[in-house]
Amino acid sequence: MARLVVKGGDLIVRLSWWEKAAARRRNVHVPLSAVRQVAIESDWWRALRGVPGRGTFIPGVLSLGTRPHPCGKDFAAVHAPRPVVCVELRHPSPYSRLAVTGPDPQATARTLRTVAGI
Question: Which domain of life is it from (predicted)?
Answer without folding.
Answer: Bacteria
